[in-house]
Each structure stands twice: as C-alpha cells, then as structure tokens.
Amino acid sequence: MAVTLTADLELTGMKAVLGAYVSAGEDLTPLMDMCGALLETSTKDRLRDSNTAPDGTAWPVSMRAQLDGGKTLVESSRLANSIQYIAGPSQVEVGSNVIYAGIHQTGGEIRPKNGAALSFALPGGGWATVGKVTIPARPYLGISDQDRDDLTATTVEYLDARVRQ
User: Which of 12, 54, 86, 115 lies in disulfide reach of 142, CB 3.0 to 4.6 Å?
Assistant: First the structure.
C-alpha cells in the first residue's frame, strides 16, 4: 500500500489478553478482519461525509473545493474507494495504494522531477506554472474516539465468543 496506518491500541487492558492469545499461537485473523472492516468503513465514511481528521479537526479546504463547492479529497472518490485493509494473525493494516494518498495524509511539497516548474490546470479554468506546490496534511487514516469504542466492543464480543467455545 502507498500509505498505511500503524497504531498500537490500548483497548482498556485487553492488550495483555490479546498478547497472551498470540503468544499461545492463536491466530487472531478473524478478529483482525472484523477490526479492519470497521476501520475501512469508518475511513471511507470520514472521507465522503465529514472532511475531518480522525481527531475531529477540520481539514484545510482545497482550492478545488473552494471554487466548485465540492468536498476536499472527494472529487472522484478514488481515494475513498481505494481504502482497504489486510488482516493478519496479530495485526491489521489499513491504507491506500493510490499514489497521492501519502501526500494527503502527511502533507508536503511537490516539486518538478524534470525541468524547472510544474504546470497544471486550475479548477476554475486556466493553467498555473509554479516551482513547487505545498499540500497541507489532511489526515484521513487514523482512529477516532468512536473507532476506539467500536474496536473495544468488537474485541470484547470476539473474546467473549472465544471463551464460550
């Protein structure tokens, strides 16, 4: 994936319990699959609906969104549609393989690879030629407070079902 979320969650004391399962050779892929699906959906919803980071802060509005009244990071929904997860025995990765995913998550500068300037079409029409473009960070990957609550509930349900087996 071009950009991947890595987070170590302290789920109300369950880290030790989950660690014991992993140490005992337990494959937690079913739990990681449930957590990945939850985070994938939450990330896609955040991109399409809220224009906010997982911590609730608003993203800087893009020039295109200002000019055409659209939403930042949602012109074609390509980024949202690219969000996916990969579940493993003891972890889950959530991310995107879209080439521009990373710069939008972390921000940064885009400079020409060849030549002295970048040229691109402007949202309102016309062209711009510049030496660099600065993209502000617009974190879309991450774990919100609601995600944390949902992950905790999912983990409790999974562990409860395992104990009952």
Answer: 54
